């Protein structure tokens, strides 16, 4: 469960996410607490409701994908270690769209977090092919939407074992 509000971007910090919700009674019990947390964190924030969605399986890794706008070059695609680690590790790569598959793979492999994707310490290898495909598609969106998209943030994007794909858990798009 997570509170939906355009003014509250960092939901974990605001205490407006509940995981491991078991049943309808648990949903009812957590609903009020989540709304209270949102109002306490940002009293003037618009609350659009609470999203209830399936709990995602544990991934091999969490990554961040994004589009940022450079005043001189226009849109740029960002890739890096995701979840809360993006702010701690500052582990990211930047490229101008559109991206070829080779450019997407180079971005992925240039980060320290790539070791997690490659099967670090007996962990399964991640679906780097699906991740690269997603980066290429994001690059296409950034290039084609250059006059419409001010910024885009997919964090986290869960990367599953080889052949199992990726899953966007949260995203934010800012339009021009």
What does this structure look like?
It is globular, with a radius of gyration of 17 Å. The strands form two sheets. Strands 3, 4, 5, 6, 7 and 8 form a six-stranded antiparallel sheet that branches. A two-stranded antiparallel sheet has the order 1-2. The chain is an alpha+beta fold. The chain has six helices and eight strands, in the order βααβββαβαααβββ. β6 and β7 (166-168) form a beta hairpin.
Gyration radius from CA atoms, angstroms: 17 Å
State the total count of DSSP E strands.
8
Biggest sheet details? 6 strands, antiparallel
Helix content: 25-40%
Task: Identify low-pLDDT runs.
Answer: none
Structural class: alpha+beta
- Separation of the first and last Cα atoms: 29 Å
The percent range for strand residues is 25-35%
Average pLDDT works out at 93
Number of helices: 6
Secondary-structure element sequence?
A: EHHEEEHEHHHEEE
* Shape descriptor: globular
List key phrases describing it:
two-stranded antiparallel sheet, 6-stranded antiparallel β-sheet, 32% helix, alpha+beta, 176 residues, globular
């Amino acid at each position: 469960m997570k509170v939906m509000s355009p003014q509250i971007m960092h939901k974990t910090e605001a205490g407006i996410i509940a995981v491991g919700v078991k049943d309808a009674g648990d949903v009812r019990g957590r609903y009020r607490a989540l709304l209270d947390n949102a109002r306490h964190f940002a009293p003037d924030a618009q609350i659009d409701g609470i999203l209830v969605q399936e709990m995602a399986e544990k991934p091999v890794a969490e990554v961040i994908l994004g589009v940022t706008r450079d005043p001189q070059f226009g849109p740029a695609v960002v890739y890096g270690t995701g979840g809360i680690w993006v702010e701690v590790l500052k582990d990211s790569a930047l490229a101008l769209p559109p991206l070829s598959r080779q450019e997407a793979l180079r971005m992925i492999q240039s980060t320290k977090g790539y070791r997690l994707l490659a099967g670090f310490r007996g962990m399964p290898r991640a679906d780097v092919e699906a991740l690269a495909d997603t980066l290429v598609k994001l690059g296409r969106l950034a290039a084609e939407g250059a006059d419409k998209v001010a910024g885009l943030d997919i964090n986290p994007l869960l990367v599953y074992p080889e052949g199992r794909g990726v899953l966007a858990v949260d995203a934010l798009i800012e339009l021009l």
